[in-house]
Design a protein that fits this description.
This protein is elongated. The termini are far apart. With 340 residues, it is α/β, with parallel strands linked by helices. A 6-stranded parallel beta sheet has the order 2-1-3-4-5-11. Strands 7-6-8-9 form a 4-stranded parallel beta sheet. The protein is built from 12 helices and 12 strands. Strand 1, helix 5 and strand 2 form a beta-alpha-beta unit.
Length: 340
């Protein structure tokens, strides 16, 4: 008669451990999960045998059985700017906060940088069966796709702007107010010839430009110039350098759509011998850690990225639990430093 006891060494699955322990596979599964349905002596014996034989249960398989993966998808859609990378300082800042919060709560992360080449890109992500919920970093130009999925998929929270009547849950600052604050800062410094550096195809940057226009109109100034600048760092510096010929003659105040754009602009102005802020004032938007490390230090609009990341995770957990969770719009804050 064959001996059912496994060969000494590493145990490969629960069935082998059950045969070795002389109990059912269900008892082993419950014991390894720490269930009180298994008496303490048996539970500790099985756990000790698992350690002795180097057995670790397949956590993903167990999670799928109970319809819980403990994995959150963090997705960066780049429909508006396909050359932008995850190494962008803004993405790195918010991803760092999200990763810290999620892992501290016992969740793993599945990170995706998505170029939306198909209409159902988001449907495929949320229907994969691999995720308990999804955090989107930015709406890009995919507002309609996000709205469509939000009609039926609840555990999803998006970093971005909130529009009246929208279905999907967002966390972000009032971008129009932020653009206005930046414009008012420049105007208070005596700047009258304003320009916006940024690619307004991105919804959030477009709204920031609208806020700058609000500030200019309130002060009786002309409509600010719009100097298109991509968010992709590989072409940003070249585009800004091309714009610099107009800055200093036609422009004395710049509102940049992001801190990174602002930093490149300050560098390009310095290379041309244009003093900041004596000749041209510059504001950024984000308040990244780098903003106070540049020389001169960057005046910018804070998005409270850390607080926003915490809101995103809290709202997502509420939605996973089946609760209602409304969008949060934070107030932008002007951070005065040296460039304006």
């Amino acid at each position: 008669m064959n001996d059912p006891t496994p060969v000494p060494g590493r145990i490969r699955n629960i069935a082998e451990l059950a045969r070795l322990a002389g109990v059912s596979t269900g008892t082993v599964s419950r014991a390894l999960a720490g269930s009180s349905l298994v008496n303490k002596e048996t539970r500790e014996r099985i756990q000790a045998m698992a350690r002795e034989h180097g057995f670790r249960p397949n956590q993903m398989a167990r999670r799928l059985r109970v319809q819980e993966t403990r994995v959150i998808g963090v997705v960066v859609p780049l429909g508006h700017e396909r050359r932008q990378h995850l190494s962008d300082p803004f993405f790195m800042a918010i991803l760092g906060h999200l990763a810290d919060i999620l892992t501290e709560n016992g969740y793993d992360i599945m990170l995706s940088r998505v170029i939306p080449d198909a209409d159902d890109w988001l449907e495929r992500i949320v229907s994969s069966g691999m995720l308990d919920g999804v955090l989107l970093i930015g709406q890009s130009n995919q507002f309609e796709a996000i709205e469509r999925v939000a009609q039926w998929y609840r555990p999803m929270v998006v970093w971005g702007s909130h529009q009246a009547g929208q279905t999907h849950c967002t966390v972000g600052v009032d971008n129009r107010k932020g653009g206005r604050l930046a414009g008012e800062c420049l105007i208070a410094a005596g700047r009258t010839r304003l320009a916006f550096l940024g690619e307004t195809v991105a919804p959030e940057l477009s709204i920031r430009y609208d806020g700058l226009c609000d500030a200019a109109a309130a002060a009786g100034l002309p409509v600010p110039l719009k100097l298109d600048t991509h968010l992709a760092s590989d072409i940003m510096a070249e585009e800004i350098a091309a714009h610099i010929e107009r800055i200093g003659t036609e422009v004395d105040g710049i509102v940049a759509g992001s801190d990174l754009i602002a930093m490149h602009a300050v560098r390009a102005l310095a290379d041309k011998g244009v003093a900041v802020p004596q000749t041209v004032s510059v504001t950024g938007f984000d308040d990244l850690p780098l903003a106070e490390q540049t020389i001169p230090r960057l005046t910018t609009i804070s998005q409270s990225i850390g607080t926003g990341a915490r809101h995103m995770v809290d709202l997502l957990f509420a939605r996973i639990a089946g609760q209602d969770a409304a969008s949060i719009e934070m107030d932008p804050v002007l951070i005065r430093r040296d460039t304006a």
